[in-house]
């Protein structure tokens, strides 16, 4: 059903919407081996997770949020009636070409993870899936990041203290699909009956559009990153300039005082340096972390994609050689 | 939505659930269903304009008419009579003339839900029922979603929590407003008398509901999936009975759905029914292995034909011909240049991606100094 939802609105190219849904789950097993069910990309896993859907746009007013919460509560109550596992385990979201590392995601995931220890966010990429293979990844926030979020303190010092790099923001959880026996029977039945012609999109060579889009997004992010770096540089320059000015002022003061002393006049009062020289505002570090994380994701996607394409090109070459 | 006055487009399958029937001529609903005699694909045009507004109005009438059987949307129970119940209503929405039988297009999600709810049923329940949601088309009915409804069934009575069903439908409607109630499903092999009652409840919700059975008890060693629609039978004027006529079931997939299904089908082959998601190059390898298998089957067939084991078939031969010709014939030099430029592009992009990653790592280090 994720695919369905994402299809009906993320036609993928102009806009995208987030589909947040709640997963309900029984007790997840030890090492986060989350079981998922059979292509209920609606995710109703055999015995483990269950999901309900709701559409949500970020930035809506709270009245809509209240409606959503109500919907969620009602749905969970109803599902409990039919013995479906109804414990929350997280949420899922569709993404457009892999751009999901945003502040909003961080906040949502933090609130989920804070409330429920094992919650995850599933990222589903409909465009990549349409290219041949299911692209579903599960992420959680690292404990380090959780602590920083808890403090709500995103200043550079706190982040430096926490020693957080962009690689340590999210940790990926491996996904395993497990089906019950009855579902297996169903699958055999479907295979016999519904012989859908395999379209082999996975082996299609005409996917440069995807790569182009990815690169475009990467370029945008890199631009943002460079702006951010410029800001940081100016900040550093300003601070150092200020330090120099402070130093100079202090020296002048001392000289004056010495002169006055030599002349026998009372020394000038010490002025509060901090009032004279206000330290400049350090730039927010969280945003640049997010951007770096996003760039990282894009790069990884691109690398995966190019690896696949290289393989396909070599296959095409083999075919041509045989032909000649 | 075409008004029922345009019969060619609004075939019996699609009376608009709320709106248009009001505009329909208030004709007496024709009780006898005309059997599907018209040719299959095209909607029955002019010859049957009269009955096509009829289903629309009959559903209206059925909804509006005072129900003489057990009323109340909340859990209603009625003693299941020994024979098929007398329908004193002017019939649940009549099938009308649909040429060749309607096609029900199922998405695999539905079957998964049904099996899942069967696996989670209460103790002692022999079967589960639920509502089917989806959209109606000119010829086919596409079922895209479903949810299960709690019900109790015993020897002589059936209780269905219709309140629950209504609530769930409202909730679902909020998320996907295009879905309508199309009918209901039940697990189990046969259609029982209780099914008739439940079907009647559903005919109040939806015009011409579909009944889907999924045989989870695996009789005959298969899980048979069948769909039915109810038709009236009997002597007109006397007690009318209800008969369930089968419909063709086809499977429909969205593209991405199909990819998901393919992935999940792989659990059939693993010992403990567990699979993980594979990485990029593995997928290409898997796909090419599949093509290799297909090719070897084709080769086997060709050799059999050559050695005379199998008689040659011209259509297959034509397909083989088009298959072989699909490999484009390109001058080798041109192909070399194309291949090389593509590979260069990809390598360059990989290099740039790696460079960017190292850049941001460096930036991170610098900032944290």
UniProtKB/TrEMBL annotation, chain A:
One of its GO terms (molecular function) is translation initiation factor activity. Its main location: cytoplasm. Residues 242-261 have a biased composition (Low complexity). The keyword Protein biosynthesis applies. SMART domains: JAB_MPN. Keywords: Cytoplasm, Initiation factor, Phosphoprotein, Protein biosynthesis. The modification Phosphoserine is found at residue 155. The keyword Cytoplasm applies. It comes from the Eukaryota. Residues 19-144 form the JAB1/MPN/MOV34 metalloenzyme domain. GO terms for biological process: formation of cytoplasmic translation initiation complex. GO terms for cellular component: eukaryotic 43S preinitiation complex; eukaryotic 48S preinitiation complex; eukaryotic translation initiation factor 3 complex. InterPro entries: eIF3h (IPR027524), eIF3h_C (IPR045810), JAMM/MPN+_dom (IPR000555), JAMM_MPN+_peptidase_M67A (IPR050242). It holds the Pfam family eIF3h_C. Residues 238-282 are annotated as: Disordered. It is found in: Cytoplasm. Belongs to the eIF-3 subunit H family. Component of the eukaryotic translation initiation factor 3 (eIF-3) complex, which is composed of 13 subunits: EIF3A, EIF3B, EIF3C, EIF3D, EIF3E, EIF3F, EIF3G, EIF3H, EIF3I, EIF3J, EIF3K, EIF3L and EIF3M. The eIF-3 complex appears to include 3 stable modules: module A is composed of EIF3A, EIF3B, EIF3G and EIF3I; module B is composed of EIF3F, EIF3H, and EIF3M; and module C is composed of EIF3C, EIF3D, EIF3E, EIF3K and EIF3L. EIF3C of module C binds EIF3B of module A and EIF3H of module B, thereby linking the three modules. EIF3J is a labile subunit that binds to the eIF-3 complex via EIF3B. Component of the eukaryotic translation initiation factor 3 (eIF-3) complex, which is required for several steps in the initiation of protein synthesis. The eIF-3 complex associates with the 40S ribosome and facilitates the recruitment of eIF-1, eIF-1A, eIF-2:GTP:methionyl-tRNAi and eIF-5 to form the 43S pre-initiation complex (43S PIC). The eIF-3 complex stimulates mRNA recruitment to the 43S PIC and scanning of the mRNA for AUG recognition. This is Eukaryotic translation initiation factor 3 subunit H. The lineage of its organism: Eukaryota, Metazoa, Chordata, Craniata, Vertebrata.
TrEMBL record, chain B:
Keywords: Cytoplasm, Initiation factor, Phosphoprotein, Protein biosynthesis. InterPro entries: eIF3f, EIF3F/CSN6-like_C, JAMM/MPN+_dom, MPN. Phosphorylated. Phosphorylation is enhanced upon serum stimulation. Pfam families: JAB, MitMem_reg. GO terms for cellular component: eukaryotic 43S preinitiation complex; eukaryotic 48S preinitiation complex; eukaryotic translation initiation factor 3 complex, eIF3m. GO terms for biological process: formation of cytoplasmic translation initiation complex. Residues 104-234 form the MPN domain. The keyword Ribonucleoprotein does not apply. The keyword Coiled coil does not apply. It comes from the Eukaryota. Its main location: cytoplasm. It is found in: Cytoplasm. SMART domains: JAB_MPN (SM00232). One of its GO terms (molecular function) is translation initiation factor binding. PROSITE patterns: MPN. Residues 1-95 are annotated as: Disordered. Residues 1-22, 55-91 have a biased composition (Low complexity). Residues 23-54 have a biased composition (Pro residues). The modification Phosphoserine is found at residue 270. Component of the eukaryotic translation initiation factor 3 (eIF-3) complex, which is composed of 13 subunits: EIF3A, EIF3B, EIF3C, EIF3D, EIF3E, EIF3F, EIF3G, EIF3H, EIF3I, EIF3J, EIF3K, EIF3L and EIF3M. The eIF-3 complex appears to include 3 stable modules: module A is composed of EIF3A, EIF3B, EIF3G and EIF3I; module B is composed of EIF3F, EIF3H, and EIF3M; and module C is composed of EIF3C, EIF3D, EIF3E, EIF3K and EIF3L. EIF3C of module C binds EIF3B of module A and EIF3H of module B, thereby linking the three modules. EIF3J is a labile subunit that binds to the eIF-3 complex via EIF3B. Deubiquitinates activated NOTCH1, promoting its nuclear import, thereby acting as a positive regulator of Notch signaling. Component of the eukaryotic translation initiation factor 3 (eIF-3) complex, which is required for several steps in the initiation of protein synthesis. The eIF-3 complex associates with the 40S ribosome and facilitates the recruitment of eIF-1, eIF-1A, eIF-2:GTP:methionyl-tRNAi and eIF-5 to form the 43S pre-initiation complex (43S PIC). The eIF-3 complex stimulates mRNA recruitment to the 43S PIC and scanning of the mRNA for AUG recognition. Belongs to the eIF-3 subunit F family. This is Eukaryotic translation initiation factor 3 subunit F. The gene is EIF3F.
């Amino acid at each position: 059903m994720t695919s369905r939802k994402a299809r009906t609105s993320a036609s993928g190219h102009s806009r995208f919407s987030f589909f947040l849904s709640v997963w309900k789950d029984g007790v997840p097993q030890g090492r986060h081996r989350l079981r998922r069910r059979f292509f209920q990309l609606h995710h109703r896993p055999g015995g483990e997770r269950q999901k309900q859907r709701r559409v949500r746009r970020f930035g809506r007013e709270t009245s809509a949020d209240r409606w959503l919460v109500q919907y969620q509560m009602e749905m969970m109550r109803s599902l409990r009636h039919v013995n479906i596992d109804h414990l929350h385990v997280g949420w899922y979201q569709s993404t457009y070409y892999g751009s999901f590392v945003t502040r909003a995601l961080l906040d949502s995931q933090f609130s989920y993870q804070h409330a429920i220890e094992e919650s995850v966010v599933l990222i589903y990429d409909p465009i990549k899936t349409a290219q041949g293979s299911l692209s579903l990844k599960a992420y959680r926030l690292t404990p380090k990041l959780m602590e920083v979020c808890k403090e709500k303190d995103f200043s550079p010092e706190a982040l430096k203290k926490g020693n957080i790099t962009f690689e340590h923001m999210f940790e990926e959880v491996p996904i395993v699909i497990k089906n019950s026996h009855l579902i297996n029977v169903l699958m055999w039945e479907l295979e016999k009956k519904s012989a859908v012609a395999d379209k082999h999109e996975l082996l299609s060579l005409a996917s440069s559009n995807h790569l182009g889009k990815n690169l475009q997004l990467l370029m945008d992010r890199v631009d943002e990153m460079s702006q951010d770096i410029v800001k940081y540089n100016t900040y550093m320059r300003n601070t150092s300039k200020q330090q120099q000015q402070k130093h100079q002022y202090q020296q002048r003061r001392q000289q004056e005082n010495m002169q006055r002393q030599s002349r026998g006049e009372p020394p000038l009062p010490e002025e509060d340096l901090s009032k004279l020289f206000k330290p400049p505002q350090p730039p927010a570090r969280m945003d640049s972390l997010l951007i770096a994380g996003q760039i990282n994701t894009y790069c990884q996607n691109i690398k995966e994609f190019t690896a696949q394409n290289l393989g396909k090109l070599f296959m095409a070459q083999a075919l041509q050689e045989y032909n000649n | 939505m075409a008004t029922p006055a345009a019969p060619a487009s609004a075939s019996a399958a699609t009376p608009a659930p709320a709106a248009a029937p009001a505009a329909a001529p208030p004709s007496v609903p024709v009780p006898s269903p005309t059997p599907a005699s018209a040719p299959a694909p095209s909607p029955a045009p002019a010859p049957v304009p009269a009955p096509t507004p009829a289903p629309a109005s009959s559903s209206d009438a059925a909804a509006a008419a005072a129900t003489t059987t057990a009323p109340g949307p909340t859990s209603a129970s009625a003693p299941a009579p020994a024979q098929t119940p007398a329908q004193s209503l002017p019939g649940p929405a009549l099938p009308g003339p649909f040429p060749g039988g309607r096609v029900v297009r199922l998405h695999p999600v539905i079957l998964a839900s049904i099996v899942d709810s069967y696996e989670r049923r209460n103790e002692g329940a022999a079967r589960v029922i639920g509502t089917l949601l989806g959209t109606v088309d000119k010829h086919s009915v596409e079922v895209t979603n479903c949810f299960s409804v709690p019900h109790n069934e015993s020897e002589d009575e059936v209780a269905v929590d219709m309140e629950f069903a209504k609530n769930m439908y409202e909730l679902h409607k909020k998320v996907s407003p295009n879905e309508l109630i199309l009918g209901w499903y039940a697990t189990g092999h046969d259609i029982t008398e209780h099914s008739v009652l439940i079907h009647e409840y559903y005919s109040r919700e939806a015009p011409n509901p579909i009944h889907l059975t999924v045989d989870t008890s695996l009789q005959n060693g298969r899980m048979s999936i069948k769909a039915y629609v109810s038709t009236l039978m009997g002597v007109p004027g006397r007690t009318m009975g209800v008969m369930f006529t089968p419909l063709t079931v086809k499977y429909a997939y969205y593209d991405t759905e199909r990819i998901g299904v393919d992935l999940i089908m792989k659990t059939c082959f693993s010992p403990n029914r567990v699979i993980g998601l594979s990485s990029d190059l593995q997928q290409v390898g898997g796909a090419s292995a599949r093509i290799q298998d297909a090719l070897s089957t084709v080769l086997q067939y060709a050799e059999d034909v050559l050695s005379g084991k199998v008689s040659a078939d011209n259509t297959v031969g034509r397909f083989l011909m088009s298959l072989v010709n699909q490999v484009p014939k390109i001058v080798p030099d041109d192909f070399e240049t194309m291949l090389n430029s593509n590979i260069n592009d990809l390598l360059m992009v990989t290099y740039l991606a790696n460079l960017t990653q190292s850049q941001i790592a460096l930036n991170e280090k610098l900032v944290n100094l």
